[in-house]
């Protein structure tokens, strides 16, 4: 896919902080902006579809899913604990 350069004016400290936060996640500012723009397009399409079907809908971006995902690294969980975590996640997303 062909990439297009865009020019955006943002205060330098905001850009620096964003780059640092994204670097910690192994991501680039360009990648983040592109995904955000895709999310906007997706939200508009989903919103139109929900209105057409008379549904009450919400959109959760990939970023929000990652932020809300519990940190399970290095932990052993029983089936019951995993089920409780999944139920909690479903209730937050509903």
How many alpha or pi helices? 4
| Total number of distinct structural domains | 1
Number of strands: 0
Unreliable parts:
none
Task: For the record, give the distance between the C-alpha atoms at the N and C termini, rounded to a whole number.
Answer: 35 Å
Major pleated sheet: none
Helix-and-strand structural type: mainly alpha
Mean pLDDT: 84
| Multimerization state | single chain
What does this structure look like?
By secondary structure, the protein is an all-alpha fold. It has one domain. It is 63% helix and 0% strand. The chain contains four helices and no strands. The chain has helices at 12-24, 29-52, 62-68, 79-93. The two termini are 35 Å apart.
Gist of the model:
The protein has helices spanning 12-24, 29-52, 62-68, 79-93. It is mainly alpha-helical and 94 residues long. The longest helix has 24 residues, at 29-52.
Q: Which helices and strands occur, and which strands form pairs?
A:
Elements: H1 12-24, H2 29-52, H3 62-68, H4 79-93
Structure characteristics:
single chain, 94 residues, 0% strand
